[in-house]
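User: Here's a chain of 289 residues. Predict its fold as tokens.
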Amino acid sequence: MRAYDARGRDPVFKVVTNGLLVLSLILVLFPFLYVVMTSFAPREEILTRGFFIIPHDFTLNAYGFLMSSVQFVTAFKNAVIITVFGTIVNMMLTSLMAYGLSKTWLKGRRVLNFMVLFTMLFSGGIIPTYLVVKSLHLINSFWSLFLTGAIAPFHLIVLRSFFQNIPQELEESARIDGCGELRLFWRIILPLSLPAIATFTLFYAVQNWNSYFNAVLYLNDSDKWPLQVFLRQMMNETNNSLESMTTEFQYSPAVKMAAIVLTALPLLAVYPFLQKYFNKGMLMGSVKG
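Assistant: Prediction complete.
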């Protein structure tokens, strides 16, 4: 018979589980480590040495080259603007609509909930959406990115369920004290919903930071392209592209790896501060449908 520890756990299962977790961690960290280390490697070592993990010499030339690139700095600034303002628009519209749909007394609530669910299964299509954006004169504007993805149906449904789990007694007592709906939402509902708000803020921030297809579709001016579009252009660079990058150093893998690191760095820096809310927000929002 198999022996169990004092807590009734199977030691074999524990070893296998921990081994799989360690293996998964290695598979995830290895490519990331390769990207980071290659970004610090000199161009000559990359061309002559071949595959390696730890370079013989460390240099910041690739990062200095990117920081001096007008295109990269502009794309990075655009990505920050799109992420910050886009996430604000996303959370304002999503949280307000989710709060309204969480109220059973709202007239037409079932129809609106069905319309939200319907958009999860069927979309308007690329061409109709483009025609709508064009008719609203939003082409080549950041608002074309903000409004076309303003509300994610899945996020709204989970956030609505989270609001439904808040005790009604709190809202009733606030209304008795003369609290209006907007004040109730701002002063009571949002503070109690901080785990869900932080979770979906992170989701929307990642979505906006990684904006690529909509940016290519709606932004014609290259000076408004976000970072992901710039990375795609850089990865496909030929000898006659990116006018400000005229040296051969631009085609070094170190520059491309440094660009990837700088692209991932903001989200990696923000995620640890939101991690404690992440699991709690998803779990509490998915308990009640």
